[in-house]
Write a structure and sequence with these properties.
By secondary structure, the chain is an alpha/beta fold. It is built from eleven helices and 13 strands. Helix content is 42%, strand content 16%. It has two domains: 204 residues, 3-Layer(aba) Sandwich (Rossmann fold); 94 residues, UDP-galactose 4-epimerase, domain 1 (Alpha-Beta Complex). β1, α1 and β2 form a beta-alpha-beta unit. Strands 3-2-1-4-5-6-11 form a seven-stranded parallel sheet, sandwiched between helices. α3 runs parallel beside α5 and α5 runs parallel beside α6. The structure holds NADPH dihydro-nicotinamide-adenine-dinucleotide phosphate and guanosine-5'-diphosphate-rhamnose (GDR). The site of guanosine-5'-diphosphate-rhamnose has 22 residues, from α7.
Length: 326
């Protein structure tokens, strides 16, 4: 039975990747950091019905010794480094913590692999945020990076360290440059989920407006379920490499609002308010990915379109709020 270690197992992608790997017959190990709220920490895994099929191992991305011990004891075939301080807005409030976890933390995982189990195949969760102030209209693996937040700077460190460990030590280390991907399990602070949760609360009479920040930013949004499959595909390649994972379509925050509100029979214009306090110190205005390499080399293609994604998220949020009201 193949064994995979997932850091960030309690997050959105960790949950979908666990479900995907379990369906492929893997033994899944999840890195779990100690929390005083351990009763709620597996909520996403429970939602997908996979929590009790995962072996949790105690560790933290900031604690190298715990990672070395896990790699030495369990010798996983594949290591997926998904753990991060992943919210861009918070990275201006906690830039150094973000650097420690999102940047140096990836270095800790790479070191643990190099020291304790270099045969493991390694996946790094890189990000389209690294393109930041875009240097080409459509971003591919060869587009120069221009990070616009402490988060993106930290991700760039982790990205290049992954490339460097592949070239220096021969590790099978791949970096997935993933564009935004969403789902009903998206964290509530990210814009799509803020919108679909807001639609649900307005629809059920629990709120009468939705404050948002920059409505003109555009993102290339896909579904997390499609994207975790691409992570796995990268580690099945004979030669490790880096891949852009995206849909090739970009949509503004405003248009996402229109799609989500209209799914619930509402008009976004009646409820969305711009709150200047939600603007970022430096914005990534437009992102649009070119997933051509992933399709040509791995046969990967996004399957879920934006309307279907938004509908699934709105329906899930309405169901959640209905269950609370009852
Ligand atoms: P989430 O924010 O949902 O999950 C982050 C995970 O990291 C959580 O499991 C969290 O644990 C864990 N974590 C945070 N700090 C530590 C730490 N010190 N030690 C161990 N674990 C820690 O992120 P997503 O699932 O959305 O994203 C997964 C990865 O992909 C992240 O690295 C993100 O930056 C990256 N990414 C995401 C994209 C997206 O659109 N979703 C696009 C491109 C890249 P806890 O539950 O305990 O807080
Ligand atoms: P992003 O996602 O920063 O792209 O990072 P987020 O959903 O937070 O923002 C997307 C865009 O929406 C604008 N926006 C708002 N954003 C939030 N969160 N809340 C609001 O009220 C709001 N109003 C407008 C933002 O300014 C921005 O332009 C996500 C994360 O998952 C990263 O970890 C990942 O690396 C990238 O996607 C790819």
């Amino acid at each position: 039975m193949r064994k995979a270690l997932i850091t960030g197992v309690t997050g959105q992608d960790g949950a979908y990747l666990s479900q995907f790997l379990l369906s492929k017959g893997y033994h899944v190990l999840g890195l779990l950091r100690r929390s005083a709220s351990s009763d709620v920490i597996g909520a996403r895994l429970s939602w997908l019905g996979v929590l009790d099929q995962i072996e949790m191992v105690d560790g933290d991305l900031q604690d190298l010794s715990s990672l070395i011990r896990i790699l030495a004891d369990h010798k996983p075939d594949e290591v997926y480094n998904l753990a991060a301080q992943s919210f861009v807005a918070t990275s201006w409030q906690q830039p150094l913590l973000t650097g420690q976890v999102t940047g140096i933390g990836a270095g800790h995982v790479l070191e643990a692999v190099r020291i304790a189990h270099p045969q493991a195949r390694f996946y790094q969760a890189s990000s389209s945020e690294m393109f930041g102030k875009i240097q080409q209209d459509k971003q591919s693996e060869s587009t120069p990076f221009y990070p616009r937040s402490p988060y993106a700077v930290a991700k760039l460190y982790a990205h290049w360290l992954t490339v460097n460990y592949r070239e220096s030590f021969g590790l099978h280390a791949s970096s997935g440059i993933l564009f935004n991907h969403e789902s009903p399990l998206r964290g509530i602070e990210f814009v799509t989920r803020r919108i679909t949760d807001g639609v649900a609360r307005i629809k059920l009479g629990l709120a009468d407006e939705l404050p948002l920040g920059n409505l003109s930013a555009t993102r290339d949004w896909g579904h997390a379920r499609d994207y975790v499959k691409a992570m796995w595909m990268m580690l099945q390649q004979d030669v490790a490499d880096d891949y852009v994972i995206a849909t090739g379509v970009t949509t503004s925050v405003k248009d996402f609002c229109d799609i989500a509100f209209s799914h619930a029979g509402l008009r976004a214009v009646d409820y969305v308010k711009v709150d200047p306090g939600r603007m970022r110190p430096a914005e990534v205005d437009v992102l649009l990915g070119d997933p051509g390499k992933a399709e040509a080399k791995m046969g990967w293609k996004a399957e879920v379109g934006l309307a279907q994604l938004a509908a699934e998220m709105v329906d899930a949020d309405i169901a959640r709020h209905r269950a609370k009201i009852k």
